[in-house]
């Protein structure tokens, strides 16, 4: 790469040595982010409500020569989140990065309220309160350090309201609002990044969907095309080029691409803040 004066330079590893907390680290984006950051030399607190999954992530990192500690944590409980932050400080002496990744996706229509209400409440507790708790738990420590970085995993569902995503979309819109408010208030002492994935089947989020009919809201008038593509995928009839990330018809985004963008946002000098990232497969043009 060329610097401002035309001289060749190598990208510095700004991730190395950082103390990081990743919520929802037991799988999906959280596990990938934890592993990729650890491979670059970060020290990771792997937080997850499922202790066994968190320990599995930490074990994988340790096996590859990285540094990680698993901590069972319910992000909806502020006191547990404060203890999580205290553990990071006790273990690593600081909290350089907080990745608020834990989340669920109970897509449902209002007509599904009898079946969905408990899941919607849990969605608010995890997706909204969990992010707020994550921010609050690290805020004082980061300001006292004079620096820090909060990465919040949002979604394209937070961009505008669509059928079937009233509660889930509202929580992600709230994540965007919380994030920008933190950025303004922290005045650069805490960098803030919002990451908005599109459809990423490999994370397992779809298991939380209450009504599959609610999924078509985000594709709107492109629903017939989306349904046909998903049917081909389920039946194993998808054309190879649609599964190839080197092809512009690529439709099923691998979670690793999201994790890479999170790492990219973290791997910046203190004075550079990447604020908002949307990652989509080039071929998912049917998503609004």
List keywords for this structure.
single chain; alpha/beta; 7-stranded parallel sheet; globular
Give the topology, please.
Elements (H helix, E strand, L loop, with lengths): L18 E5 L4 H12 L3 E6 L2 H13 L3 E6 L5 H15 L4 E4 L12 H33 L2 E6 L12 H21 L3 E8 L25 H12 L20 H12 L9 E4 L9
Parallel strand pairs: 1-2, 1-4, 2-3, 4-5, 5-6, 6-7
Helix pairs in contact: 1-2, 1-7, 3-4, 4-5
Going by helix content, strand content and strand pairing, the class is alpha/beta
> Roughly what fraction of the amino acids lie in strands?
5-15%
Q: Alpha-carbon distance between the termini? A: 35 Å
Could you tell me the mean pLDDT? 93
How many strands appear in the DSSP assignment? 7
Helix content: 40-55%
Q: State the shape.
A: globular
Model description:
Mean pLDDT is 93; it is low at 1-6. The chain is built from seven helices and seven strands, in the order βαβαβαβαβαβααβ. It has 288 residues and is of the alpha/beta class. It has a seven-stranded parallel β-sheet with strand order 3-2-1-4-5-6-7, with helices on both faces.
């Amino acid at each position: 790469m060329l610097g401002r004066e035309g001289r060749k330079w190598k990208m510095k590893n700004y991730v190395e040595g950082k103390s990081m907390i990743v919520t929802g680290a037991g799988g999906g984006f959280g596990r990938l982010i934890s592993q990729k950051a650890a491979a670059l030399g970060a020290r990771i607190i792997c937080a997850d409500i499922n202790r066994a999954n968190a320990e599995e992530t930490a074990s994988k990192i340790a096996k590859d020569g990285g540094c990680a500690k698993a901590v069972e944590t319910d992000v909806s409980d502020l006191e547990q989140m404060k203890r999580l932050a205290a553990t990071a400080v006790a273990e690593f002496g600081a909290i350089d990065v907080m990745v608020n990744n834990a989340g669920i996706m109970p897509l449902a229509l209002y007509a599904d309220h009898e079946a969905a209400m408990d899941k919607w409440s849990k969605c608010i507790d995890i997706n909204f309160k969990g992010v707020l708790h994550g921010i609050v738990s690290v805020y004082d420590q980061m300001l006292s350090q004079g620096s820090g970085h909060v990465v919040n995993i949002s979604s394209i569902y937070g961009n505008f309201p669509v059928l079937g995503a009233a509660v889930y979309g509202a929580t992600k819109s709230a994540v965007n609002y919380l994030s920008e408010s933190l950025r303004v208030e922290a005045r650069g002492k805490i960098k803030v990044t919002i990451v908005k994935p599109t459809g990423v089947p490999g994370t397992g989020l779809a298991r939380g969907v209450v009504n599959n009919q609610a999924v078509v809201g985000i594709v709107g008038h492109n629903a017939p095309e989306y349904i046909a593509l998903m049917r081909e995928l389920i039946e194993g009839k998808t054309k190879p080029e649609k599964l190839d990330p080197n092809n512009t018809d690529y439709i099923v985004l691998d979670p690793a691409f999201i994790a890479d963008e999170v790492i990219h946002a973290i791997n910046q000098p203190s004075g550079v803040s990447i604020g908002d990232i949307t990652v989509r497969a080039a071929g998912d043009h049917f998503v609004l």
